[in-house]
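Handout, page 2. Input:
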Amino acid sequence: MSDTQETQGSETERRHRLALTGTVVSDKMDKTIVVQVIRRYRHPRYRKYVNERIRYKAHDERNEAQIGDTVRIISSRPISREKRWRLQAVVEKGTIV
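Output:
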């Protein structure tokens, strides 16, 4: 009986969550930030390097991130219609101009 309980316990481990690092471009919403992640890759046909900017909406429970901050976000369950990421940490505080 204890063998089956051990296998069930190991199946409930958390999966590896995807983490991204980007810059906060908006913090006007309550408990939500918009993070811009820049991905640089080589184009498969033209062999030129391309910068791709993707914006993610992330959940910020304590409203601690501000515009210009570099943050780390992790994937999570859907929180709202567009939010599928959570703020993990503020890596570096930005300077507000």
